[in-house]
Write a structure and sequence with these properties.
The chain has three helices and seven strands, in the order ααβββαββββ. It has one domain. The strands form two sheets. A five-stranded mixed beta sheet has the order 3-1-2-4-5, with helices on one face. A two-stranded parallel sheet has the order 6-7. It is of the alpha/beta class.
Length: 227
């Protein structure tokens, strides 16, 4: 007896249709649009946290320097010639003995970078590109006892890349600072900048929260002035 098997009327599919491919691509595009900005924002938050930590170490080094200098903060400009460990170039060089790693003068969100100790004279930071943070030049040589508002007087903050004399004094006005390098540092952290104050705490602030150096500090503002 002869048996005949039923033939299959359906065939196995060999791939995706064009419509299915387009649907998958659309889903991938939507997910990318949602996830990539979130990942970028997360990375920036991590860089901002690292920047805050760097600034705190720098501010701590400045205060430690002050303890060994009869409670006077470092001069912003120390020496113009014969730069060495014993005769530092600027404020950043002066506090090097009190800081563990010179890379802590580098902001993770600032792209300019020069090799440490580019001049091979032991001072580490006397060349452009080595310091990404400003020092409030109104604090230069100041006695700590003469500073009335430790918690809202800026000591260091985000700024354009420079050398061991990287400074800013907030200008002469009393109005909130304008955005940009000439106003309140490099606005490189989500439209604002990180500042660390004389008491050692750090804040992320937008430019309109900072008053110019001519504005005397109070208990309710942030400024470069000291009295």
């Amino acid at each position: 007896m002869t048996f005949q098997t039923a033939s299959h009327t359906s065939r196995s599919r060999q791939g995706f249709t064009l419509i299915e491919i387009l649907i998958v691509m659309a889903i991938i595009a939507i997910l990318s649009a949602i996830l990539f900005p979130a990942l970028g924002a997360s990375r920036e938050r991590a860089r901002r946290s690292a920047c805050q930590m760097n600034q705190r170490f720098v501010a701590m080094a400045i205060r430690q320097y002050s303890q060994d200098a009869d409670e006077h903060l470092p001069l912003w400009s120390v020496n113009d010639s014969g730069v060495s460990v014993a005769t530092p170039y600027g404020w950043a060089d002066a506090v090097i003995p009190y800081i563990k790693n010179p890379d802590q003068f580098q902001c993770p969100s600032e792209g300019t970078y020069r090799p440490i100790d580019v001049n091979n004279n032991g001072t580490l930071l006397d060349d452009f590109g080595s310091v990404d943070y400003l020092y409030n030049s109104r604090l230069s040589g100041q006695a700590e006892a003469g500073i009335d508002y430790f918690s809202n007087t800026i000591m260091v903050g985000d700024y354009g890349s420079g050398d061991a004399r990287n400074i800013y004094d907030g200008g002469s006005g009393n109005a909130p600072l304008s955005a940009g390098p000439a106003g309140s540092g490099n606005i490189r952290h989500a439209g604002g900048a990180v500042y660390t104050f004389v008491d050692g705490h750090s804040k992320w602030l937008k430019p309109n929260r900072i008053l110019g150096g001519g504005a005397s500090p109070t208990s309710s503002n942030f400024t470069y002035a000291i009295d």
